[in-house]
């Protein structure tokens, strides 16, 4: 019921209209002021606002591009500065030129910076920063190539610059680290190899102001004392003997090299003549066994079958060339094998020696 009422009211309102007189409207139009031709003041103001807004947007975009380009340039220059070192002669360099591409962006050409002193690099970097700030304040400067700008970096080495002194200690300071050690030294001397005792021995002497000396060697040392030691040179090789002088916290060392030209073999000969009038040549006994205080066993063997033809443990009982199996003199010009086993060898000495002996 209510909806029907509202529809009736709406229908009456939509169909309702007032009658008007066209003549009255024409009379009213004549009384209105006439419109002048052209653009009104409000129109000009609107156009000026639009144009200003567009120019401001273009300027903002250009300023942003220039600032970004200058930031990239400054980064490149700083990178070149970080690889700079000292140079020996004055020189000048120019900053890389700027090139524009079709998009309006700047590209920096490469630069090879010479090596420079640190203080001059910092001064040059300051000038570059100041010039960069000027470009940021006035974007038009970015249109001028850097080569034409009045900026030249005078890169000169410092005059009369003091060179840093070396902190490395001298060889004397390394060897003698404290003051008391500077006068401490040890001098070594060595005699020739001696066989007086029946074995190869080298007497080494030490000269030093201190009596506390420590000995060491790649061979065997005996009779070590403060002023000397003895080297046993059984093998054909080079021996290094070192002596260290000790005084409080100071230690000074000296070394000497000794060469043995042959292997020790009990000083045995390789031939003898039982019919010789010289007793030393008529019998066979390794000479070292006659003068050394050592217990041993000497054995003579037949090389044909390995049979024992002589055996003794007495240095005074030398072999006279008789085969104990037959009681006959051995054949001449035949090499027989001898072997010695020591019961109490010296330090570093082997306990078995061997060789050949020939009757002539």
Provide a quick synopsis of the model:
It is built from seven helices and 18 strands. It is α+β, with helices and mostly antiparallel strands.
What is the strand and helix layout of this fold?
Elements: H1 2-15, H2 22-31, H3 41-82, E1 91-93, E2 98-100, E3 106-108, H4 118-137, E4 153-155, H5 171-175, E5 186-190, E6 201-208, E7 213-217, E8 220-222, E9 228-232, E10 238-247, E11 250-259, E12 271-272, H6 279-282, H7 287-291, E13 296-301, E14 308-312, E15 322-323, E16 328-329, E17 335-342, E18 352-359
Parallel strand pairs: 12-18
Antiparallel strand pairs: 1-4, 2-3, 5-6, 6-9, 7-10, 8-9, 10-11, 13-14, 13-17, 15-16, 17-18
Write structural notes for this entry:
By secondary structure, the protein is of the alpha+beta class. Among the domains are: 74 residues, no CATH class; 85 residues, Immunoglobulin-like, CATH 2.60.40; 89 residues, Immunoglobulin-like (Sandwich). 28% of the residues lie in helices and 25% in strands. It is built from seven helices and 18 strands. The strands form six sheets. The protein has a five-stranded mixed beta sheet with strand order 12-18-17-13-14, with no helix packed on it. Strands 5-6-9-8 form a four-stranded antiparallel beta sheet, with no helix packed on it. A hairpin with a 2-residue loop joins strand 10 and strand 11. The longest helix has 42 residues. The chain is rod-shaped and about 185 Å long. About 20% of the residues have low confidence.
């Amino acid at each position: 019921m209510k909806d029907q009422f509202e529809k009736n009211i709406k229908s009456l309102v939509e169909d309702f209209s007032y009658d008007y007189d066209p003549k009255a409207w024409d009379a009213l139009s004549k009384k209105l002021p006439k419109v002048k031709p052209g653009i009104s003041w409000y129109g000009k103001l609107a156009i000026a606002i639009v144009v200003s807004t567009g120019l401001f947007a273009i300027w903002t975009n250009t300023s942003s591009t220039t600032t970004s380009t200058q930031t990239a340039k400054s980064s490149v220059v700083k990178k070149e500065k970080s690889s700079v070192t000292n140079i020996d002669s004055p020189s000048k360099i120019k900053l890389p030129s700027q090139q524009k591409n079709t998009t309006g962006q700047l590209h920096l050409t490469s630069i090879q910076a010479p090596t420079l002193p640190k203080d001059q690099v910092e001064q040059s970097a300051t000038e570059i920063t100041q010039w960069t700030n000027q470009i940021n304040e006035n974007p038009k400067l970015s249109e001028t190539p850097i080569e034409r700008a009045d900026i030249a970096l005078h890169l000169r080495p410092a005059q009369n610059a003091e060179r840093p002194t070396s902190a490395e200690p001298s060889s004397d300071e390394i060897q003698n680290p404290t003051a008391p050690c500077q006068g401490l030294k040890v001098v070594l001397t060595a005699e020739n190899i001696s066989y007086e005792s029946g074995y190869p021995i080298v007497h080494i002497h030490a000269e030093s102001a201190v009596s506390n000396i420590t000995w060491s060697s790649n061979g065997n040392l005996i009779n070590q004392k403060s002023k000397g030691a003895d080297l046993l040179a059984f093998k054909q090789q080079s021996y290094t003997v070192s002596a260290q002088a000790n005084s409080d916290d100071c230690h000074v060392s000296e070394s000497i090299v000794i060469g043995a030209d042959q292997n020790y073999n009990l000083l045995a000969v390789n031939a003898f003549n039982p019919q010789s009038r010289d007793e030393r040549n008529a019998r066979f006994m390794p000479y070292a066994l006659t003068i050394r205080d050592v217990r041993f066993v000497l054995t003579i063997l037949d090389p044909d079958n390995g049979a024992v033809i002589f055996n003794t443990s007495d240095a005074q009982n030398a072999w006279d060339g008789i085969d104990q199996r037959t009681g006959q003199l051995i054949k001449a010009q035949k090499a027989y094998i001898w072997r010695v086993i020591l019961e109490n060898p010296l330090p570093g000495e082997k306990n078995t020696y061997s060789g050949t002996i020939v009757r002539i």
